[in-house]
Amino acid sequence: xxxSLSQRFSIKRFTQGEVARESSVALNHRRIFxxxxxxxxxLLMLVVSINYSNSMGFVFTFLLASAAQTSTYFSFRNLSGxxxxxLKTNPCYLGQTTHxxxxxxxxxxxxxxxxxxxxxxxxxxxxxxxxxxxxRISLSVKPNQRGLYSPNTLTLSTTFPFSIFRAWSPLLFDQxxxxxxxxxxxxxxxxxxxxxxxxxxxTSQAVDAEEYAGFNPYQSGDHFRRVNWKAWGAGRGLFTxxxxxxxxxxxxxxxxxxxxxxxxxxxx
Amino acid sequence: xxxPRLHTSIVYMLVGIAVLLSLPHIGTLNPLFIGIxxxxxxxxxxxxxxxxxxxxxWVLLPLTLGLTFLVLKLHGMSxxxxxxxxxFLMLLGLKLLECRKNRDVLAVIFVSFFVLITPFLFDQxxxxxxxxxxxxxxxxxxxxxxxxx
Lengths: 268, 149
Fold this sequence. Notes:
The structure holds 2 protein chains of 2 kinds.
Chain A (H helix, E strand, L loop, with lengths): L4 H5 L2 H4 L8 E3 L6 E4 L4 H12 L2 H25 L2 E5 L5 E2 L4 E9 L8 E5 L2 E5 L7 E8 L5 E3 L4 E5 L6 E7 L5 E4 L5 H4 L22 E6 L11 H5 L5 E5 L19 H5 L1
Parallel strand pairs in A: 4-12
Antiparallel strand pairs in A: 1-3, 2-11, 3-5, 5-8, 6-7, 6-10, 9-12, 10-11, 13-14
Chain B lengths: L7 H15 L8 H16 L10 H18 L6 H18 L3 H16 L8 H20 L4
């Protein structure tokens, strides 16, 4: 799938990854980037050797530089050929820390070492991947907003042989986590409204206190224990008894009556 | 857990490499500085037994400044090749004393690469070259040993 020229050179591609399209991504030349990792000492060695015109200094400078250059190939190969796919996530509440899971599949039959997986500052070390191994990694994220939360870029990085070069691969996936509002306790926050139309709305909760309050014609679905069998036995048809203590305390949750002013608390 | 503590065997390897690196300097540099560097290396090796003996930053900073001043003063306030060789040898010893986490070892290794080429500023024989090559490969092996598996 070809990228346009402007897409190829945008900075976001190197730090945040390409726009998520598939749920499983294979790491190849297009997605792995490599840069030196604070190894400026080689340049200093070169400068000192040039300054003193010292042959042996040059020898070791260039030997170290060639070792570093070879290590770029190995750092790249440590990441290349891995297939990363995202797994289903569970919804969570705002303020909780939840886990995002990925599946790393080694497809090229080589061993992998010392890969670091990082999301939003939480990093985990993926040690020794054996050939053709599938491993599942879980990283914790803390969503900071209610709603659908897409985790940020997963960055797989390695400095494998000599820590001279760092190869990294930023990946964006399309998974979303549903974040519910923070639940608050019901003890004091919920105002209980009394409603005049509902007679007996705040009555005793005990199920045994049943006062006989008349009967209604039978509607299909009424519980058979409440059917007035006496009347049916007398040939008067099916009637259902009504008991006044069945009505439990009803609480109307009204958006406009909530005492706290902002939307988030009201949603909670 | 991002920065695990350093394994003692790695530290012993680094101290051994540092001692080997300072051996070619024995004839050419001021013996005082060779002695100080050996003291620093052995301090680091002994401190592996008890973490308490490690100097913290409040001791290291004045020590660094004091040794820098000493190097400059005894070489007449100039930075020739002798002065800078002494300076980098002191730097190696001090960096060794400072490294406790995995991240600091890289600094020690890169300073060691630098100290590797300083004997060649004075004397370029084949024997010294082969010795240097041997230490070079020791350093490369330490580099590959400190990768977190």
